[in-house]
Amino acid sequence: MNSFLNRVQKRDTALLMIFNNSIHCKFLNFVMPLVTYIGSSIFAILFCILTFFNPYTRTLSLYTASALIISSIIVRIIKVHVNRLRPYLILQNLNIKKIGIDNYSFPSGHTTCAFSMATMLSLAFPHLVFISFFIATFVGVSRMYLGVHYPSDVLVGILIALTTSYTIFNIV
């Protein structure tokens, strides 16, 4: 089992270096810190409040809030039990931008949040599927670009968001 985890860590690190070093440029240095906050709890709360006050999107607001709450609880439980340190705390030669975060990276809460909103938007308004998932994907990439998450952190965040959101949308 240990050798399997070592192989996963090596691949994770290699992929992270592609997102963090290979696409590094001044434009993305400016854009990525802004994009990453689309997955923040403040943005999610504003999204839910704004959609709640529109009668056409009130149900979307309630579903999204439910998905965000449940997926955030799942992310928090996993983070506390796994205790995976963020890449910028371990790896050298990362391009990092210090942003206010805790020490643990697995799974990515910002990515989970962004994909929860994107999934609910896409289920409620199918014509928004491409733009909403493009933006959510950009949030996930920004987390790696900033050196705060490994690709597997982002991938598991996506899976949690998709599963939680789809379940809530189809059960309620």
From TrEMBL:
Transmembrane portions of the chain: 27-54, 60-78, 125-148, 154-171
Signal peptide: none
Keyword annotations from UniProtKB, A to Z: Cell membrane, Hydrolase, Membrane, Transmembrane, Transmembrane helix
InterPro entries associated with the record: PAP2/HPO, PAP2/HPO_sf
UniProt cross-references to Pfam families, sorted A to Z: PAP2
Cited SMART domains: acidPPc
Compartment(s): Cell membrane
GO molecular function: hydrolase activity
CDD domains, alphabetized: PAP2_like
Annotated ranges, domain Phosphatidic acid phosphatase type 2/haloperoxidase: 61-169
Gene Ontology cellular component terms for the protein in this record: plasma membrane
Topology class, membrane: Multi-pass membrane protein
Location (main, coarse): membrane
UniProt-recorded name of the protein: Undecaprenyl-diphosphatase
Species in which this protein is naturally found: Clostridium acidisoli DSM 12555
Phylogenetic lineage: Bacteria, Bacillati, Bacillota, Clostridia, Eubacteriales
